[in-house]
């Protein structure tokens, strides 16, 4: 057991999230001389990007399923063997508190949603947030049916379980992420009926692959995308721009979907609807950053609600750094580069030389690419035209679009918090992670509910503040066993206020 | 059957041979292999729904697959509100359908 000290010269750096950004940050921080604790809620390393088969069922050719698998292997092996690094899987940070000159993390370690997990309290000298993002799926009629999945679910099940979510699968939404999802599905032997891209990109080649002046340097990304495109071509999967799944149909589960052509503003074009038989549909319209800890720490956010960082990946809060998708959707190459810079800076190292300097340059190139993706695939306001009054908006509380509109009319309020409380949208167990941004757009966007003039500008309140990062069992909080020793300075666990599961 | 697990012998990723396990779902045995999540076992066996919503009585299963949406909640060995997509299945786990959200 290493000695636990406070106030020494060695900095204790805690990294939350073990995807590309977190892994790179942990290694960079350790290389710069810090003592590092790497936490992830999952029981393996790699995050969603490198989600893989578990040790109970190792794959002989896991690399077939991933981009840059060798990079992951080297990072994971190095970190596990590094004397200054403690890797802590199944570690769920459930709250973050600010105190004089720092932050404190309250962590439960053990089986997901299990009882009697170990409680851990960390008071790091520096914190690197690399919590990533999850899919954002816009609601459409029938999206609550079993057989409708987020695109990320289809990929997670394919890569982490070798499970195909269906035999005849439709992939739809927006952005380059649809391509690796389709590839993952093809590798399970499923038939991908089509990939339907809402964005206005004229063709795959014109969209991303044929712009060497912008992709120079971002060759990793171009090569990755080219690989997915060749998978589609080889399996004769049609890729259709300016189209969307505007409804899913079936009794008890998906049996068919309606696909329609979209105009430039993403509104369905009347008369272009066609019914396509499918037993699964995988839909993703972009990503939502996982901001709970960043918000709890008090980090400034950009207007697009990503964590604002400077050139050294420092947030607005001293001692807190951020890297990867919570700072902008840039993909794995950007995340690796940002993680290297953030880890180096968090450890007090020099970001102007060595690996951090090289990473800084790679980061700039990757960010240009991300901006281009957003321009081509960002959500346009016309999508609300595919909603019907009986379309479920909040999956947890089963609040419909009609109910949200009714509440706006009855109460005369387009303030998100007020509409939530009356309609119950966003009050379920997912804490508005699925519907929060949709609700905000329905209340504040152009053509929002109760906005007859189309002036927009309703609610300004946000829905992503969640003091309890995950639902925590009351028993875990009541019991709070003595914290275990860790490489980071510990404080005896105090009785924490907390709620039961809602 | 709609969803399925890729047979190991036909999988280009060449996973290790199955180590079969059985969980009991609403009284019925469902077969999977060690290392799968409960959601993975259910989907792999062609089951796509295992929860009934409180308000609408509607069927639900996996939606996000990464622990964010809470659609896949099940009772496991008497403990409610376990996300099936995160929990690794153990031999003999008793999985029970939850009516409604907590």
Elements of chain B, N to C (H/E): EEEHEEEEEE
DSSP strand tally of chain A: 21
CATH class of chain B: Alpha Beta
Shape of chain B: globular
Number of discrete domains of chain A: 3
Name the CATH superfamily assignment of the largest domain in chain A.
Answer: FAD/NAD(P)-binding domain
Q: In percent terms, what proportion of residues of chain B is strand?
A: 25-35%
**Estimated share of beta-strand residues of chain A:** 15-25%
What is the residue-averaged pLDDT of chain B? 94
Uncertain ranges of chain A: 1-7, 209-218, 484-502
Biggest beta sheet attributes of chain A: 5 strands, parallel
CATH level-1 class of the largest domain in chain A: Alpha Beta
Give the CATH H-level superfamily of chain B: 2Fe-2S iron-sulphur cluster binding domain, sarcosine oxidase, alpha subunit, N-terminal domain
Number of helices of chain A: 14
Mean pLDDT of chain A: 87
Which topology of chain B does CATH recognise? Ubiquitin-like (UB roll)
**Helix amount of chain B:** under 10%
* Helix-strand makeup class of chain B: mainly beta
Oligomeric state = heterodimer
Give the tags.
heterodimer, A: 502 residues, alpha/beta, FAD/NAD(P)-binding domain, Arc Repressor Mutant, subunit A, 3 domains, 5-stranded parallel sheet, 14 helices, 21 strands, disordered N terminus, B: mainly beta, Ubiquitin-like (UB roll), 3-stranded mixed sheet, 1 helix, globular
In brief:
The complex is a heterodimer of chains A (502) and B (102). With 502 residues, chain A is of the alpha/beta class. In chain A, 30% of the residues lie in helices and 19% in strands.
């Amino acid at each position: 057991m290493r000695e636990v000290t406070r106030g020494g010269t060695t900095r204790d750096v805690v990294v939350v999230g073990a995807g590309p950004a977190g892994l790179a940050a942990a290694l960079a921080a350790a290389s710069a001389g810090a003592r590092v604790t790497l936490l992830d809620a999952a029981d393996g390393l790699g995050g969603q990007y490198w989600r893989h088969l578990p040790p109970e069922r190792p794959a002989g050719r896991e690399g077939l399923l991933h981009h840059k698998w060798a990079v992951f292997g080297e990072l994971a092996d190095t970190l596990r063997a590094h004397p200054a690094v403690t890797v802590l899987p199944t570690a769920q940070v459930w709250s973050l508190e600010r105190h004089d000159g720092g932050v404190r993390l309250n962590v439960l370690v053990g089986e997901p949603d299990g009882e009697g997990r170990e409680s851990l309290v960390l008071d790091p000298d520096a914190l690197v947030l690399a919590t990533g993002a999850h899919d954002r799926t816009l609601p459409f009629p029938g999206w609550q049916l079993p057989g409708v999945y987020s695109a990320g679910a289809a990929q997670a099940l394919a890569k982490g379980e070798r499970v195909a979510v269906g035999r005849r699968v439709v992939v739809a939404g927006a952005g380059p992420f649809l391509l690796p999802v389709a590839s993952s599905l093809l590798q399970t032997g499923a038939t991908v009926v089509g990939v339907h891209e809402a964005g206005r990109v004229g063709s795959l080649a014109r969209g991303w692959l044929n712009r060497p002046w912008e992709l120079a340097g971002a060759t990793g990304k171009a090569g990755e995308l080219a690989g997915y495109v060749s998978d589609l071509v080889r399996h004769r999967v049609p890729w259709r721009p300016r189209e969307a799944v505007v409804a899913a149909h079936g009794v008890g589960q998906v049996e068919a979907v309606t696909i329609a052509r979209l105009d430039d503003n993403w509104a369905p074009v009347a008369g272009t609807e066609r019914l396509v038989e499918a037993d699964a549909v995988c839909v993703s319209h972009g990503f939502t950053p996982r901001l709970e800890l960043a918000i709890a720490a008090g980090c400034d956010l950009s207007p697009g609600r990503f964590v604002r960082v400077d050139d050294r990946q420092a947030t607005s809060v001293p001692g807190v750094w951020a890297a990867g998708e919570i700072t902008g959707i840039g993909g794995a190459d950007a995340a690796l580069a940002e993680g290297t810079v953030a880890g180096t800076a968090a450890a007090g190292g020099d970001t102007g030389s060595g690996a951090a300097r090289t990473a800084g340059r790679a980061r700039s190139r990757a960010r240009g690419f991300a901006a281009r993706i957003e321009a081509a695939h960002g959500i346009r306001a016309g999508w609300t035209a595919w909603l019907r009054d009986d379309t479920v908006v909040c999956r947890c509380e089963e609040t419909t679009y009609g109910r949200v509109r009714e509440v706006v009319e009855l109460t005369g309020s387009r303030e998100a918090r007020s509409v939530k409380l009356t309609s119950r949208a966003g009050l379920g167990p997912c804490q508005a992670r699925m519907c929060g941004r949709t609700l905000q757009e329905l209340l504040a966007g152009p053509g929002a509910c109760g906005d007859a003039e189309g002036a927009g500008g309703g609610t300004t309140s946000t829905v992503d503040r969640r003091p309890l990062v995950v639902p925590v069992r009351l028993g875990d909080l009541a019991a709070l066993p003595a914290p275990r020793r860790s490489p980071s300075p510990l404080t005896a666990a105090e009785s924490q206020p907390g709620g039961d599961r809602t | 059957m709609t969803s399925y697990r890729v047979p190991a012998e036909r999988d280009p990723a060449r996973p290790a041979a199955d180590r079969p396990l059985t969980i009991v779902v609403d009284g019925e045995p469902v077969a999977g292999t060690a290392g799968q999540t409960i959601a993975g076992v259910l989907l792999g066996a062609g089951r796509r729904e295992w929860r009934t919503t409180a308000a609408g009585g509607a069927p639900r299963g996996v939606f996000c697959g990464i622990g964010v949406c809470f659609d896949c909640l099940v009772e496991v060995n008497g403990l409610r509100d376990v996300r099936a997509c995160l929990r690794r299945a153990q031999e003999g786990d008793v999985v029970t359908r939850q009516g409604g959200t907590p």
